[in-house]
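Notebook entry, structure prediction.
Reason for the run: the old model in the group folder had no record of what sequence produced it. Starting over properly, with the input documented here first.
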Amino acid sequence: MNKSQPLFQNNIVFTLSSMGLVGGLIGLIIGVANGSGFLGLLIGILVVVFISIAAISTGQNENKVRYIICAFFAFAAFYFLGIVGIILGLLLGWFLGWYLYWLYLGKYRTKLQPYLSSSQVLWHYLFRVICGVIFVFLIMPILVVMPLSFNSQDFFTFTPEMLKFEPEGYSLKHYRDFFTNNEWQRSFKNSLLIAPVATLVSVSLGTLAAIGLSQSHVPFKRAIMAILISPMIVPLIISATGMFFFYSHVGNFLEDTIGLDKNFVGYVKVILAHSVLGIPFVIITVTATLVGFDSSLTRAAASMGANPIKTFFKIQMPLILPGVISGGLFAFITSFDEVVVVMFVGSTNQKTLPWQMFTGLREQISPTILAVATILVAISIALLITIEMLRRRSEKLRGITPS
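New structure, fully documented this time:
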């Protein structure tokens, strides 16, 4: 036999069973989409098992067989779905070819310890599959919304032109509506005004609170910490109700006693309310950064004549800056995406982008919401990537190898 002969001859039954299971799952999905789940399940099992037996029996080079499998599924998908099916068929053929030889040649054990039992190997990969299914379950709504935002029609569903990838099925008109509509632009500007200011307040107060709670002589640290992070734990509707009553009195005082403009007071109330929601995130991230902080550095600076303020900005702040920025980004996301509190505390003049989206869903079903949602997802992804980069930088500064 040639060099491509499998190293594990007893893997045939296991390989065919696993391939049949995958083929049945794929066939079930396709069958349900076409109104016959059981028939799709049966055909999927038979086709994949037959292809697997043929591939194993040939004894040909692995790469050559995988190319043949890709070509077969690309041709079959082209016959049923047209040009778009070629891409789907190639992806499906590549996965089945890789999975077949990954099982048959025992490649799934190459990176594992040799003493692991079959049940331990099964749980190792089953755990990964479970995590992948959960990830797909969480990410699928986002994956559906993003392409729908380019729909050329005023629908919330995929049109036949979109499914066929025809150019006339796609358009940027919903994004154009977002950037030209006065209501959307006013709410977007409100969000860009409220979120940064609320983030600045959250970072300032949260950082000071975290540094204070890191001191060993502070009494009742656990109780104070629990109170400060309670906005993360208490249901948002309860917090919003409490803020409504509290900030209504604050607003009356600022308007009637001090004489401030009503619209300005409305922005102040919303910013303070969002700051309360963002402070816990800053406290948690800065506290985690302070765990690896060497307090002897501040004592050394004090012994050389530096006052506390200069010590903080010259010694402490540069080292905890990644944690401060991470907390600030979380606070920004919280303020930028928040809708419940601003509806209780603010007025129509302080209508933010999430509030406008909620209004659009309730009063007029506009596909522009999908475009806005896609923009918000892009902003969130950019911020999360920034947070991850800052986390790695923080670990490097603390002498930890980034994971």
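Summary: Residues 23 and 44 are 5 Å apart (CA to CA).
The old model has been moved to the deprecated folder.
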